Amino acid sequence: MKHLPNSLYGFAISLFVFWCGTWCVHLLAICYGKFKLHKKSSKCYNESPLPAVSILKPLMGIDPNLEHNLESFFTMDYPVYELLFCIEDSVDPAVSTVESLMTKYPQVDATLYMGGSKVGVNPKINNMQPGYSAAKHELIMISDSGIKMKNDTLLDMVNNMTEKYALVHQMPFTCDREGFAATFEKVFFGTVQSRIYLSADLLGINCHTGMSCLLRKSVIDELGGLRAFGCYLAEDFFIAKAIRDKGWKMRISNQPAMQNSGICDISSFQERLIRWAKLRVAMVPTTILLEPLSECMVLGALASWSAAILFNWDPLVFYLVHVLTWFLSDWILLSIVQNGSLSFHKFEFVVGWLLREISGPYLFLHALWNPAIRWRRRTYKLQWGGIAYELPSVNINLSTKRLLLS
Ligand SMILES: CCCCCCCC/C=C\CCCCCCCC(=O)N[C@@H](CO)[C@H](O)/C=C/CCCCCCCCCCCCC
Ligand SMILES: O=c1ccn([C@@H]2O[C@H](COP(=O)(O)OP(=O)(O)O[C@H]3OC[C@@H](O)[C@H](O)[C@H]3O)[C@@H](O)[C@H]2O)c(=O)[nH]1
């Protein structure tokens, strides 16, 4: 140890400190998850009138669960809300799904907006713009197509929107679905994603993923409306940033967002993770270093090396204990986020967890390698900072277009 150059010794110390910091993140996430998640929403309607909410549902294409998921918005236990369905393309098969639900529940205030409005590059913002302009209420909820609501999800979000808050978002999670791909998604959202999301929320770091969020319309209007974020693909991150820059607070709600898309396969999920990684790299370049470094397998190897240098500990034993403890800590966190029995066997968790941990660094490298971003039927590139521009797409005929929509 005496003969080591100072710089290498310093590097080993920094790695070891980072490793300790990562365990603090594990601990924070578990404690905060236990404290915050799944608390019952108890506000009684008679106490004070609940504010009305305009719910924006940007839709594109259908999947086997879409009707069931959308129906959960018609049957919520909440006094006053309106549903604003936004569909860009009038030949989209989602149109008939929405229309049949509107016929089935005539008592629910629901409107369908078609055609979108090109206010920027972000197709989700363009799609939602007509609905946003028509929204009647001060509280706006943006909810992606794959989200399923519980009876009291909206109540829970509204309860979290207290005086100083202008953004309440749901931590992404998944419904119980059949198959290994569903297990893999649940393992991802319930472990690595929950760990970062919970600790970021606790420490006041912007980690907003906009699949289900509640906003104050007056604040968004003051910032220039949704259209002001149309130049970004990651509108969620920039909406949260702008809200905080104005002095407002944001936080997660007690219930996680229950994603329940009927399309569930490993390769399209990994494509989605790669797309998200590309967004993060462009918006927060420090993640280029932080993300691979905070992966279990990578960090374990580096920390074993530094422990061997600093304390002369056996690197193999250190590595195995590190991986095993990480695994157990992830299991505990997943159980907290799930809040009930898991829909898969423990062995499936082991396989899903290993696949996630091994594929994580590879997917990240993949994202760095090819910066073009494919989102549904369009392709984009990002400038450093996050401003997006669309790449010209190849001409596709109508039948291919239908295929992409379905
Ligand atoms: C000492 C330990 C340090 C731990 C460092 C952790 C490094 C960060 C690793 C992974 C980041 C994962 C971010 C998870 C959520 C992202 C999902 C997502 O990409 N959503 C996008 C699409 O909807 C969205 O536009 C992005 C939103 C947020 C991006 C935030 C990036 C910065 C994250 C840094 C968080 C550090 C938290 C550390 C907690 C102590
Ligand atoms: O071209 C599009 C693409 C997507 N959308 C809508 O946008 C929502 C999210 O789309 P996807 O499910 O494909 O994408 P993700 O789940 O990855 O989105 C997530 O990451 C990117 C962020 O900008 C989003 O806010 C976040 O929800 C859906 O409701 C979808 O219907 C459009 O309206 N038009």
TrEMBL record:
Keyword DNA-binding found: no
Does the keyword Membrane belong to this entry? yes
- Give the top-rank taxon of the lineage listed in the UniProt record for this protein: Eukaryota
| Gene Ontology annotations for the cellular component aspect, listed alphabetically | Golgi membrane
Q: Which InterPro entries match?
A: Ceramide_glucosylTrfase, Nucleotide-diphossugar_trans
A single GO BP: glucosylceramide biosynthetic process
Q: What is its main location?
A: Golgi
**Localisation:** Golgi apparatus membrane
What EC designation does it have?
A: 2.4.1.80
Query: Pathway, according to UniProt?
Result: Sphingolipid metabolism; Lipid metabolism; sphingolipid metabolism
Gene3D superfamilies tied to this protein: Spore Coat Polysaccharide Biosynthesis Protein SpsA, Chain A
Keyword vocabulary terms for this entry: Glycosyltransferase, Golgi apparatus, Lipid biosynthesis, Lipid metabolism, Membrane, Transferase, Transmembrane, Transmembrane helix
The entry lists its GO molecular-function terms as:
ceramide glucosyltransferase activity
CDD domains per the UniProt record, alphabetical: Glucosylceramide_synthase
Transmembrane parts of this sequence: 12-33
Query: In what way does this protein cross or attach to the membrane?
Result: Multi-pass membrane protein
Q: What class of enzyme is it?
A: transferase
Q: Which family does it belong to?
A: Belongs to the glycosyltransferase 2 family.
Q: What is this protein called?
A: ceramide glucosyltransferase
| Organism the protein comes from | Bactrocera dorsalis
